[in-house]
Amino acid sequence: MTMFRAGHNKPRPRLREPLKRDEPRNSLRNIGLGLLLASIAIAAAFLATKNASAHPGHSNHADILDSPIAGVRNNYWYDYRSDIEEAESELRKDLRRAKSRQDNREAWAEYNRELRDARSDYRKEMIEKGYILRRGVVTVEG
Fold first, then answer.
1. Is the pTM of the predicted complex or chain greater than 0.85?
2. Helix locations, the chain, DSSP H
3. Distance in angstroms (rounded) separating the CA atoms of residues 3 and 1
4. What distance lies between CA 138 and its chain's CA centroid?
5. Are the beta carbons of 127 and 118 closer than 8 angstroms?
6. Between these two residues, 133 and 122, which has the higher pLDDT value?
7. Around Cβ 126, how many Cβ atoms within 10 Å?
8. CA dihedral over 12, 17, 20, 26, signed as positive or negative
9. Would you state the pLDDT for residue 47?
């Protein structure tokens, strides 16, 4: 064993308080703490579901088509579906950033405009391809 200067080869005694047995805690205090934690968890779950349900779903929008016109799945149908998905993602972003009711109204108004625009574009393309007959067009031969 290597010897250091006098007194340096022994560890210093640590000043520790003697161990004490804890007194039993008040069970009401534990219950109160449990209720507090439970209420915080419920509030967090509520906020998470509120954000997750920012979009009410397709059932609340009559403007969203569930199936393609005339059952034809072509590029125009897939363009329409991608426009709808893009509008939904923009709505979620806008609602997350909204700080007032006016911001919420503007986000929903923009979303509804995009839905109408997507359906209108899809319908026009399907009319051009002949899958939908134009309304109000009269052909007179003579």
1. no
2. 27-52, 75-97, 101-128
3. 6
4. 48
5. no
6. 122
7. 19
8. negative
9. 75
3-class secondary structure, 56? coil
pLDDT at 13 (0 to 100): 66
For position 49, what pLDDT does the model report?
67
Q: Indicate the SS3 state at residue 59.
A: helix
DSSP 8-state assignment for residue 130: T
User: Which residue's structure tokens are 């125009």?
Assistant: 76
**28-58 burial, b for 16+ CB within 10 Å, e for fewer?**
eeeeeeeeeeeeeeeeeeeeeeeeeebbeee
Which amino acid makes up residue 64? Answer: I
Average model confidence (pLDDT) for the chain? Answer: 79
Please give the Cα distance from 55 to 34 (Å, whole number): 33
On the 0-12 / 13-18 / 19+ scale of CB atoms within 10 A, 122 is buried
Torsional sign, CA 67, 72, 73, 74: negative
How far apart CA 125 and CA 118 sit, in angstroms, is 11
Tokens of 128: 């051009």
Q: Which of 63, 61, 110, 115 is nearest to 84 (CA)?
A: 115
